[in-house]
Amino acid sequence: MSEEPTPGARRTRADRPARPRRPTAPDGLVLVDKPAGWTSHDVVARTRGLAGTRKVGHAGTLDPMATGVLVLGIGRATRLLTYVVGADKEYTATIRLGQTTSTDDAEGEVTSTPGAAGVTAESVAAGVARLTGEIQQIPSSVSAIKVDGKRAYALVRSGEEVTLDARAVTISRFDVHALREVEVDLAQGQGASEVSDASEFVDGADAPVGGTGVTVVDVDVTVVCSSGTYIRALARDLGADLGCGGHLTALRRTRVGGYTIEAARSFEALESQTDADGVLATIPLADAARATFPVRDLTAEEVVALSYGQWLEASGTAGTTAAVAPSGELVALVEDVTRSGHEKAKPVIVFAPSQGETSKGTTT
């Protein structure tokens, strides 16, 4: 007969009631529509519970204030994430001109509110054009970039001054959709009330005379950019270019490479979209690879060779290629390289087990 734990005593793991573990999800990708206020780590932790495994990773961090596409890898699909991270990304965002913050976004403290009285639609368009194409961008000082082994944001929080090096990024699209004048009450910090919509925007409108109100301008944009681009740094730099300061007030990631917001699901949807056994649905490895890489269809003999890590004849396709078996399963990722003066296809990542492992019922 088991003894009841003494009241107030710390319970050991053996004392805790066993919770049923969810069935392990099949290897594949899951596209989450990240809610505002969640960190990317929060999303990974929640998905581990839904997937019944700790082997879950994500392809590219989203700030807590941001929403939208977060690509997660389950099981062997975590090996694809390195390639997904490098894909281009698309965002919709709102930039507030005429006000700066300590973090270059709405989560930081307001550091200045000069207003945007001199801002015009033409000046915004010109500033956006200067930030389009290949540019040098200095990341926000509160980014997750490491400096001497420590995260930049941690150094800033400890009181250190951090200046990061500029990096080359590519802004393929920087489209302006609407401009709105907003009156900010300085007596209430960031509190604001909208005074006109985009159709009523008046170029160069003066800030209200008297009182504590200052007019700023909110700009709705779409940005398509290379990996490593900071949208809040774009907001900061646009404001600096126009001489009024700026920061990001809203951000939604709508695409990561070939994965779009239409395919992303909320956690409520993920919990409801399971099979009869409660297994979380994932995008199979082969389908996930097809959205990121060109595909090479293999013969049965090539499947066996690749499963042992052997090289194949070159396919003539530049970059990484998804090698798919006649059955439709992803066997490996391969790349054409020169070996002993000849072009060969080198396996970069092998997903299929070797024939000997298959006969033993094991997987890699």
Q: What features would you describe in this structure?
A:
The structure is a single chain. The chain is an alpha+beta fold. It is built from nine helices and 20 strands. The protein has helices spanning 40-51, 81-85, 121-130, 152-157, 231-241, 267-272, 285-290, 300-307, 355-360, and strands spanning 28-34, 56-58, 67-74, 89-97, 100-101, 110-112, 133-137, 146-147, 150-151, 167-185, 192-194, 213-225, 246-256, 259-260, 283-284, 295-297, 312-313, 320-324, 330-339, 342-350. The strands form four sheets. Strands 1, 2, 3, 4, 7, 10, 11, 12, 13, 14 and 15 form an eleven-stranded mixed sheet that branches. Strands 16-18-19-20-17 form a five-stranded mixed sheet. The chain has a two-stranded antiparallel ribbon with strand order 5-6. A hairpin with a 5-residue loop joins strand 18 (320-324) and strand 19. The longest helix has 12 residues, at 40-51.
Which class of secondary structure composition applies to the elements?
A: alpha+beta
Tally of DSSP helical segments = 9
Mean pLDDT: 83
Shape: elongated
How far apart lie the N and C ends?
44 Å
Largest sheet: 11 strands, mixed
Stretches where pLDDT falls below 50 for ≥5 residues? 190-200, 205-210, 354-364
Radius of gyration: 26 Å
The beta-strand count equals 20
Q: Beta-strand level of the residues, as a percent range? A: 25-35%
Approximate helicity band: 10-25%
